[in-house]
Amino acid sequence: MNRFLAQVLSVVFHPLLLPTYLFAFILYYMPTAMLTLPWENRWVILSMVVISTFVVPGLGAYTMVRMGQLDSLEMDKREQRGLPLLFTGVCYATTAYLLYKTSALDAIFFFIMGLIAASVFLTYIVSLFWKVSAHAVGMGGALGLLLVLNRLMPDGSVTMAIIAVVVLSGAVLSARLRLNAHTPAQVYVGYGAGLLLTIVIAYIAY
Question: Which has more pLDDT, 49 or 202?
Answer without folding.
Answer: 49
